[in-house]
Design a protein that fits this description.
It holds the Pfam family BTB. With 221 residues, this protein is mainly alpha-helical. It contains 13 helices and five strands. The chain is globular and about 55 Å long.
Length: 221
Amino acid sequence: MDSELLTVLVGAEQKRYNVHIDALCASSTYFRCLISSGLKEVKEQLVHLNSEVDDAVAFEAFIQFCYFSGYWAKESLNRHHGTLHFHAKVYVLAERLGCVELKTMALDKATDLCSDLTNVANEKLQKCLEKSLCLFGETVRIVYANTYDPHAGKLPTVAQEASGSSTPDDTQQITRNGFRLLLANFAASHLPELKKSEGFMETHLDCPEFGTDLILFLGRD
């Protein structure tokens, strides 16, 4: 709290945030590298974040994490707070800012939410499900466009190489992006509702890898 403040302008609307430099550097490799770079914007203590994944609502979650090691939904600020779409935006922003702990937290929160939405038990969850389904196509696009995963259509496993050798050096670990698999599994569970959405039906045109992952979960118990 004794460190200097850095002004960060976020998103197309350039919303202004004043955040302690030490809090940013403790959580984000992006800000650590930026602060140590000595660039003009650092000397002027004014940084612009305006890439396609920089979102004021997600950045507020990042600030919460910087100070409190967690984040929560503030529904009064944004109608998408607490939805799967919200956690997806936090996830991709955390990846861009190099905040591994926040990225993991966003995936965990999204996973818990999807589990809760499997058996909707109250009106609040029903509204959350409706919002998540309505925004699902956009959610898929933001995750698939801003994450890297070379193993689309495969489940995470340890696969034997074609040589047939059983030595440990000849095995290949297939790792997957957790949020991509979460979305594919969620879509398979709610496909009848999602098929009614024109936006969802167009998703495979923008994100063919999503369609490939979706097949993994269709017909599974």
